[in-house]
Amino acid sequence: MMTRPFALHKSGDDGDGEEDDDFTFEQMDLSRDKETILKLTTITPEDDITESVQNALYIIWKKHFESFDTANHTGFICHSLDDDFAGCICTAEVSENSDVMILTNLYVPEHFRGLGIGSELLQMTMRELKNNGKKWLLLANLILPETIEPMLLKSGFQKTSSGFAADLQLN
Question: 68-90 pLDDT, tens per residue?
């Protein structure tokens, strides 16, 4: 398992002050991390929703997660040095032995947003996929937060009529 320490700073911080925002990134182990990822990405304290809606979101994400072959998932998890969950990214093969992957999950808790964690998770994943012979990473046309489109475009994704696509051979 690869674990890598990393210092990130809030947007606008030049990084010459105290470094409070240190994180580790490690390769996702789906057998170990799946349930944690599902819980932490669907039920957050920032959400002001009922328990029944939280449970419904959990079920939706679980079914989405399980709709792909778990043997062909890859991704990374980020934690603060205090071991707080700070984000994750998951991808899966579109079909068996495919060189095309789909981004199934990219999540950074609200209080860690703006530090570059999502961008770092995306870049690490794209490098890993390319190193493993994958050629494309797709993101289906979903409802996306406004802030994610500029990050995707900056990371080499192109907007398509049905989502976003990144040619990993060009990145």
Answer: 666 678 899 999 989 888 999 98
> Tell me, what DSSP letter sits at residue 38?
H
Q: What is the per-residue burial (b if ≥16 Cβ within 10 Å, else e) of 41-75?
A: bbbbeeeeeeeeeeeebeeebeeebeebeeebbbb
Task: Look up residue 143 and give its amino acid.
Answer: I
Reference 129, options 142, 117, 118, 138; nearest CA is 138
23 by Cβ neighbours in 10 Å (0-12 / 13-18 / 19+) ranks as buried
Amino acid, single-letter form, for residue 125: T
Contact 2, 26 (CB under 8 A): yes
Can you tell me the mean pLDDT for 123-143?
A: 90
What does residue 78 show for φ and ψ, rounded to 5 degrees?
-115, 135
